[in-house]
Amino acid sequence: MSVTEHPSIVACPGCLAAPQLRAGAQGDAIGETIHLSLPAIHCAGCIATVERGLLSRADVHRARVNLNRKRATVNVTPGTMPETLIDHLSDLGIQANLLDTSALGASSDTHGRALLLRIAIAGFAMMNVMLMSVAIWSGAGDATRTLFHWLSAAITLPAIAYAAQPFFRNGWQAVRVARLNMDVPISLALILATAMSLYETAAGGADAYFDAALSLTFFLLVGRYLDHRCRSSARSAASELAALEVPRVTRLTADGREVINLSQAAIGDHIVVLPGGRVPVDGIVLDGSSDIDRAMLTGESLPIAARIGTQLSAGEVNLTGPLTLRATAVGDDTTLRRMVTMIDAAESARNTYTALADRAAAIYAPAVHLLAFTAFVGWFVFSGDARLALNIAIAVLIITCPCALGLAVPAVSTAAAGRLFRRGLLVKDGTALERIAKTDTVVFDKTGTLTEGKLEVGITAGLTENQCAVALALSQSSSHPVSRAIALGLEGACAAPITDISEQAASGISGSWQNQPVKLGSAAFVDVLPNDQHGAWLRIADGAPVFLPLVARLRDGAAEAVDALRASGQNIHLISGDNHAATRSLAQSLNITEWHADQRPEDKVAYLDALAAQGHFVLMVGDGLNDTGALASAHASLSPASAVDAARAASDVVMLGHSMSALPELISTAKKAKSRIIENFAIAAGYNALVIPFAMAGFVTPLLAAIFMSTSSITVLLNAMRLTLGGRT
d(Cα 565, Cα 670) in Å, to the nearest integer? Predict the structure, then answer.
């Protein structure tokens, strides 16, 4: 039995019961809307628990849970305090945090839907024009041929005008600033092929290339959509992190307590933080004592004691007792906001990475234009026929059009992403696989990443029956994370009848058993010398104190993944915000020699920057808010699905399953994908080297050029599909 190593994330009772239907019709939204983050939910039972629990309150009119985004949208009676909903869910065993959705922005994929619509229009038009082209190729007479050409023009012109807008728009933006990109030759080929076909139709010519223009548009749009799917990532990690700020705080004044917006808080204000609440500002404790969960910000696996004079940071969670703080930093100066700024800078730096296709296009586009221009000038000088020269130039443009080049990367990325998804790895970023393929160093976080984020009692066999009974009775009377872990570990024992139980915040629990004082808590609380291990001390009367150690359990597949990565030549590092003893113990169990403890978020970023400066390409694996900056600044990053929203948003890859066994395959698949991309570039280059001389010599019509172009694109797609064949790639 175990308890969460992150003390604020509690067990999920909804998962323990059979899922039930959602409670009734919830009606239309009325009143105020409150958004809650639910980082620990992961199944239909969780959804039922949250929605039924919230709807049982008279002040809740509507409650909807989004499992994918781990959020709840709650419509309440005006004036309902979010803290009451959070406390209510906490009583049900569900951790909830208040979200400020104004920091998140919209997440609708309008661009992807627009591309799909353009693909549908281009494909529909292409099929209809090709049907008419069959009649023309079959030997239709002059009048019939001209009629079909005009019908093809009537279909093609509006279809091209709408479907090819992404290429026209991007190409024009490049030309306006006197540069070339891949969309410039695409746009030029489409415009010239359509214009030349329209001219031939008006002049009663035998050839028109409307089908070539449409097929070119269709294939390129498919590539563009695949690229969009690979590049579309989750919302900004900085926005997710900023949304975790508490939007309203309780300020203590001479007239009593008042609730104000966070933006109204000022340095020197006395801020009240209730149990279960998140600290809204940096400050010093003026009154009260409690346990503080710093796991989200620092990765410390156990809460720290907060008393008068303790310095607290925004984003930490107050667990057990009410506190009054004197604000020392507010707004942009708080720890949480500084982390947001750090992540923003890291994300911006990583976004400057240039994809292979973009680098290839920078060389390819000028060469295409030069070849087409050379063909036009050469044939015009040789024949004096501008119409013939233009036809040959269009054929060169179409046959060299970077359709295969445009498909080379997204086709492979999509095939690789599909293969990894079947192994439980969701690739979110279009350039992720290219960056992961370069990885030579893997840096792990500890808590919640290599470990399960849970603590369990290490040794109970040496306890006497009385000690087990007393420890169980005392631990059951407290909601402290250590007490819960001990209670779960001693579940088979019978609790002793303890009287006069009292709990001292941040210290321990005491009581009376058989007229003898009994204590369970910290070393200072039971009056013994402390050690450097996780756990609690038990003392019965004047007897010798007994230490109950708590150990972190390894995540399934972690040891195998570390061994496999090491065997493949990767350098393995461990950086953790946890204490020295816990980090050393885990590092030794996994044979990791490079490890560092007590690392704050900024320390982790600096550590990765130092590795990058030494020429290493780092894959960062982490799950907490304290890892978000490192995840964003690393060359590539991965987080488990159980990670907080901000960590998942900052990561290139999300591990959907519980086991880490698929991690080595991520790197090996990325390397194979890079090989396939290079092969696709070679296919595109070889195709051009073979057919361009024929096109420039005038042996290829624009229609035949479109057929060759389509053949190269299909070849690239088939090569990419080899990645889906598992180990045979």
Answer: 14
Lateral strand order in the sheet of 256-261 = 256-261, 248-253, 270-273, 323-329, 282-287, 311-312
User: pLDDT tens digits for 197-215?
Assistant: 888 788 777 677 788 788 8
Looking at CATH, the fold of the domain delimited by 3-99 is given as: Alpha-Beta Plaits (3.30.70)
Angle at 526 between CA 523 and CA 527, to 5 degrees: 75
Rounded (5°) CA angle 147-148-152: 120
* Burial of 369 from C-beta contacts in 10 A (0-12 / 13-18 / 19+): middle
How many Å apart are CA 48 and CA 45, to the nearest integer?
5
Range list of H helices, 177-209: 183-202
Q: Where are the beta strands (DSSP E) in 465-528?
A: 499-504, 508-513, 516-521
Average of pLDDT values for 90-113?
65
Closest CA to 7 of 451, 455, 621, 471: 455
CATH of domain 424-451+555-671: 3.40.50.1000
Partners of 573 in the β-ladder: 443, 594
| Set 227, 282, 293, 445: catalytic member | 445
Beta pairing class for 499-504 and 508-513: antiparallel
500 belongs to the catalytic site: no
Tens-place pLDDT, residues 700-717: 766 676 677 767 777 877
Per-residue pLDDT at 727: 46
Task: Please state the pTM of the whole predicted model.
Answer: 0.58
For the 246-279+282-329 domain, the top CATH level (class) is mainly beta
Mean pLDDT of the chain: 77
In one letter, which amino acid is 280? P
For the chain, the helix, strand and coil percentages under 3-state DSSP, each to the nearest 5: 50, 20, 30
Structure tokens at 410: 């997204």
For residue 117, which of 156, 162, 149 has the smallest C-alpha distance? 162
* Torsions phi, psi for 324 (to 5 deg): -115, 125
